[in-house]
Amino acid sequence: EARKKNLTCSQVNIVGIASEGTIVLPIEKDEEEEQIEKEEREKLRLILQQMKNGDEEAKEMLEKEEKELDDQLKERLREEDFLSVMSGYFIPETIDEATYAVLGEILEIKERINNQTDEKMYIFSLDVNDLNLEVVISQRELIGMPSVGMRFMGTCWIQGKVIMS
């Protein structure tokens, strides 16, 4: 007889293999802007958690927040460049495959040599709106010189696993 256990997600590992990419300048933010952004993300995270627990009021709050963010984005895009407004994104490019358009801040860079092709490879640890993502890209497929604090924008084939405990 199989025993049923309450499993919880303890970790998610996501890796992207980039087919192309560009290094993009970071968005300059002061401490106050960073704090406001952090508080907004935490607020949205709490609303999502309440919604998962069946709170209908939380669903209405989330819809209201989404509309406000959408209106703010549209207003800013009238005056500002897209890459000045968006600090990061993770958007599916196709329905069939696990291909995503990714924009995220580079937190760490590792360099490796592909021992089969002798090509230089980069492994970026990215922060994509509080989602940690490892991205591997060949140097020849990358435009620009990567450094910590800059942003990576590219097309990635995404794979991952959920670790339950």
How would you portray this structure in words?
α1 runs antiparallel to α2. This protein has a 5-stranded mixed beta barrel. The chain has 2 domains: 1-27 and 87-165, no CATH class; 29-85. The protein starts with 8 loop residues before the first strand and ends with a strand. It has 3 helices and 7 strands, in the order βαααββββββ. The protein has helices at 31-52, 56-79, 82-85, and strands spanning 9-24, 89-92, 99-113, 120-128, 131-138, 142-143, 151-164. 30% of the residues lie in helices and 41% in strands. With 165 residues, the chain is of the alpha+beta class. β2 (89-92) and β3 form a beta hairpin.
Q: What is the strand tally?
A: 7
Overall mean pLDDT stands at 85
Strand order of the largest sheet: 1-5-4-3-7
Categorize the overall geometry. globular
| Spatial separation of the terminal alpha carbons | 20 Å
What is the total domain count? 2
How would you describe the oligomerization state of the chains in this entry?
Answer: single chain
Instruction: Name the poorly predicted regions.
Output: none
Report the order of strands and helices: EHHHEEEEEE
Helical amount: 25-40%
The major beta sheet can be summarized as:
5 strands, mixed, barrel
**Helical/strand content category:** alpha+beta
Gyration radius, rounded: 19 Å
- How much of the sequence lies in strands comes to 35-45%
